[in-house]
Amino acid sequence: MAGPAATSVAARVAGSVAAQQFVQSAAPGRPACSLSDGCPRHTYFPAVLLNSRLFAFRLHDVSGVRRFPAGADQEWSQCRALGLRSAAAYLLVFDLTCADSFRYIRAIREQMLESRDMQRVPVIVVGNKRDRVAARDTRDCRDFSATVRKQWKWPYVECSAKFNYRVLQVFRELTMALDALRQEELAPATETSAAAARSAADGGLCGHCAIQ
Predict the structure, then answer these.
(1) d(Cα 48, Cα 82) in Å, to the nearest integer?
(2) Is 85 exposed, middle or buried (0-12, 13-18, 19+ CB in 10 A)?
(3) Which residues contact 151 (CB under 8 A, 6 or more apart)?
(4) How far is Cα 83 from Cα 202, in angstroms, rounded to an integer?
(5) Contacts 24+ apart (CB under 8 A), 42-48
(6) What PROSITE patterns does the entry give (predicted)?
């Protein structure tokens, strides 16, 4: 696609409507690609502008996948060209009205941590169907939030894809996390360039040296 390179993002579990709402809001009129390779996936190509930088996404909706592949061979056998193990970031979306869906993403999280280095891979956990949460379910919602934020140490957002409530915030959080990683990666190069510039300004001499 034209413009900046697309960042591959995998969205899982109850995320189809959220992905569609985001694409319609962020890039109305842009087509989604439904792949016919036997893989339960739709792919969208939205873009987000943050801090004067354009982030182009390749968003894979893979809500039909049963487990996170433990290796490349397993990924190929389960669903070729899925790209789950190489995604730059993940959205784990669950149904706030269904505790089983939260247990499912908990299992997916454990599989991810066991099979991939997640140190520099952003993950946003999203509780969907906020509009359908009854008063009796608010305690469960608090438990979900506490688990994700305090135990897992991952960002957590509740939204309603049906009413497009806080859907853009979900993807803003994701974009900010990716931008923070980019800034960290650029920092060493920036420091090296600044040091070289200072050295050149001093005639190529080390700041601790002097000509006798």
Answers:
(1) 23
(2) middle
(3) none
(4) 49
(5) 42/16, 44/19, 44/20, 45/1, 45/6, 46/22, 46/171, 47/3, 48/171, 48/172, 48/175
(6) RAS
CATH number at residue 149: 3.40.50.300
* Count of positions (residues) in the chain: 212
In a domain, 1, yes or no: no
Structure tokens at 86: 């190489």
174 within some domain: yes
d(CA 168, CA 18): 9
Report the domain count for the chain: 1
Pairing relation of β-strands 33-34 and 53-61? unpaired
For the chain, 212 residues long, give each residue's pLDDT as a single digit of tens: 333 445 666 655 445 666 666 555 544 444 444 433 445 567 888 888 888 888 888 888 887 678 888 888 887 777 666 678 889 999 999 999 999 999 999 999 999 999 999 999 999 999 999 999 887 678 889 999 999 999 999 999 999 988 889 988 998 999 999 999 988 988 776 565 555 556 555 555 444 433 33
Is 76 within a domain? yes
pTM reported for the whole predicted model: 0.75
